[in-house]
Amino acid sequence: MENFRLSDQDRATLQFKVTTKLRELILKGEFKMGERLTQEEWAKNLGVSRMPIREALRQLEVEGLVRIEPRRGAIVTPISAEDVEEIYQLRALLEGQAVLKSLPFLDDEDINELERLYEKMIALKEDEKDMEEYMELNAQFHHILREGCPWRRIKGFIDTLWKGIPSYTPSVLSHHLKEAHEEHRLMVEYAKQKNGEKLKEVTENHILRTRDNLLKMIEKSEKIDVE
Fold first, then answer.
1. Distance between CA 135 and CA 141 in Å, rounded?
2. Per-residue pLDDT tens over the stretch 188-205
3. What's the number of domains the chain is made of?
4. Which residue numbers delimit the HTH gntR-type domain (predicted)?
5. Does the residue 2 lie in any domain?
6. How many CA atoms does the CB half-sphere of 56 hold within 13 Å?
7. What is the largest CA-CA distance in the chain?
8. What is the C-alpha radius of gyration for the chain, rounded to an integer number of angstroms?
C-alpha cells in the first residue's frame, strides 16, 4: 500500500483530514470486507497520534463504513452498491417531497441565506483543503431547503439518512462540484420563484446524480480489485 502520511500543513485540520483519508480509502476499495484497521498501524501510516485515528474510526462507524468490535477493533464494512441505491433513492423521494412542502414556509430571510451559502460554496476551491467548509455549507443549504416542511416525520427520516455517508460525499466526489454548483444555483432560483415543482425536480435529480457518481466509483474500485 502506498504512503498515506499527512503533511505538516494537513495537521491544521487534523481530525477532518484523518477521517477524510480513511473514508476515501474505504470507499475506493483499498480495504477488503472484514479487514481490521488498527489504531497503531494507521497512526504510523498517517504520521499522527492514536487519538485522531480513534475519533476517525468512531465517525466512520456512525457512517456504517466500519464496525468496532470488543478486542478486535475496527472492522471494515464498505458501503455496497445496494446501500448507495437504497440511501439515495430514499433521499430523492423524501427530500423532493420535503422541499415541495417546505417552500411555502420559507421567507425572504431563508432565501437570502440560501443565496449566501451558495455564493460561499462556489467561492471555495475544488481541493481537499476547502472540503471541510464546503461540506458544512452544503449540509446547511439542504437543511434550510427542507426546514419549513410541516411534516416532522419526513424530516426525521431525512436527518437519519444524512447521518451516514451523504454528509461526506463531497469529500470523495470533489471533481463533480461544478455540477453540484449548477444544481444549487437552480435550487436558489426556483426557491426565489416559489416554483415548488421545479425545486422538487432539481433536488431529486441532484441526489440521483450523486448516487450515480458514487455507484460508478464503487464499480471502478471493484473492477480494479478483481484485476
1. 10
2. 999 999 999 999 999 999
3. 2
4. 12-79
5. no
6. 27
7. 57
8. 19
Burial class (CB in 10 A: 0-12, 13-18, 19+), 54: middle
Residues 49 and 141 in one domain: no
Cβ proximity of 66 and 76 under 8 Å = yes
Instruction: Examine the fold and report which residue of 76, 98, 124 is the final residue of a domain before the chain moves on.
Output: 76
CA atoms of 59 and 48, how far apart (whole Å): 17
Where residue 27 sits, what CATH number does that domain have?
A: 1.10.10.10
Q: Are residues 176 and 132 in the same domain?
A: yes
Has residue 205 been placed in a domain? Answer: yes
Half-sphere exposure of 34 (CA within 13 A, CB side): 0
Residues 189 and 202 in one domain: yes
Cα 214 from Cα 43, distance rounded (Å): 28
- 69's enclosing H/E stretch is strand 66-69
Each as own residue / partner, the long-range contacts of residues 160-163 (CB below 8 Å, 24 or more positions apart, any chain) are 161/87, 161/90, 161/91, 161/94, 163/62, 163/63
- Show the domain range for 127: 81-226
How far from 63 is each of 38, 45, 186, CA to CA, in Å? 18, 22, 29
What is the DSSP code string of 161-191? HHTTGGGGGGGT-GGGHHHHHHHHHHHHHHH
The predicted-structure confidence for 74-122, as pLDDT tens digits, reads as follows 999 877 889 899 999 999 999 999 999 999 999 999 999 999 999 999 9
